[in-house]
Amino acid sequence: MSDPILPRIRPEIAALPPYRQGKQAGADAFKLSSNENPFDPLPQVAEALAAATPVNRYPDATAGALRERLGERHGVGPDAVHVASGSVSILYQFVSAAATVGDEVIYAWRSFEAYPGLPLVSGATGVPVPLASGARHDLDVMAAAVTDRTRVIIVCTPNNPTGPVVTSAEFAAFLAKVPQDVLVLLDEAYAEFVTAPDAVDGLAERVYEDHPNVVVLRTFSKAYGLAGLRVGYAIGNPRVLDAARTTAIPLSVTSAAERAAIVSLDAEDELRARVDVIVERRAVLVDGLRAQGWDVPDAQGNFVWLPTGADTMSVAAVFDEAGLIVRPFDGDGIRISVGEHESVEKVLRAAESVVRTLHR
Ligand SMILES: *Cc1c(COP(=O)(O)O)cnc(C)c1O
Question: pLDDT (tens digit, 9 = 90+) per residue, 187-217?
Fold first, then answer.
């Protein structure tokens, strides 16, 4: 039988590999491939889910209660907050609102896997700028890459998957060079895990006030442990946020997600204590790996980066064999999430067993 004729798709889309999730862990394996929170949901969250608005009703399209709460938390009005089904959605909303055919979107590379797809889907051109030494953003080169076609620049801090932050001073110097009509998305998905005192904090520093072209993105998926519910938010100038509100798919944030996020904000101290535990485990991992001889960059998120280069897939197989699901990026390196207490020793043992076999 001949192949059926399929509908015509834009060639640049047809050429893309469809999204593949990090491997699901077997019963006794640790899933350290998606930077999830290893702790069980708080009991309050489970209760809030059970009590959420009847599911035959649509949610509040504006997520008004959560925007109000986030506004109070960060000292802005509710219109300066935009909530969506994960901050990845917000990235798509902004890029599709700001950039199309002929326009350019600058981002660091290697960085978050979702970035290259953003300009591609909106028809724009992606401009990846290689990381500088230490696996850090090269903001000077990123600023120099701006042309009159640039519409969006994405800055990821701490950088997923390599770990280092952008400092306040670096970000300020960068903004001084970027034209005011270029949208800068400051992706702070891992902000809660940062311990570096000089790291930029777009919300605490209120960078969007002096620079209305900057929008700060945060998520409940990582530190708050709600990855499965899909809630993220942006804070910035209300008129700039309108662009994302316009391209958002309406009613994507469910009442359950909104309730769970509010309850989590109420339990911030409890969740912060969990973050502290993750940060302690991160330090054990980084120190242990460096003592073994690994060249681990500064780790400021809930993950560590092993620069395994050409050995990436064979090293990933060793972790896999040890019951550790990690995220390999072929030819580049391996990202390992900071997970359950027992996973830390296992990661260190597996890493030690391969470190001497690496090709330098
Ligand atoms: C995880 C992550 C996000 C957000 O994920 P959502 O679950 O969609 O909120 C955004 N940016 C980076 C860099 C991430 O790693």
Answer: 999 999 999 999 999 999 999 999 999 999 9
In the three-class reduction of DSSP (H, G, I as helix; E, B as strand; rest coil), residue 13 is classed as helix
Angle between helix 255-266 and 268-292 (nearest 10): 80
Q: Count Cα neighbours of 22 within 13 Å in the Cβ-side half-sphere.
A: 22
| DSSP tag of 199 | B
Which secondary-structure segment (H or E) carries 210?
Answer: helix 207-210
88 Cβ inside 6 Å of ligand 1: yes
Q: Is the CB of 113 under 6 A from ligand 1?
A: no
219 lines ligand 1 (CB under 6 A): yes
Task: Give the per-residue pLDDT at 113.
Answer: 96
Q: What is the pLDDT of residues 74-101, one digit of tens each?
A: 999 999 999 999 999 999 999 999 999 9
* CB-count burial class (<10 Å; 0-12, 13-18, 19+) for 22: middle
Q: Are 145 and 106 in contact (CB under 8 A)?
A: yes
Q: Do the Cβ atoms of 272 and 243 come closer than 8 Å?
A: no
Judge contact between 119 and 105, C-beta under 8 A: yes
Mutual angle of helices 255-266 and 64-74, in 10-degree steps? 30
**pLDDT band at 360; cut points 50, 70, 90:** low
CA distance 215 to 243: 11
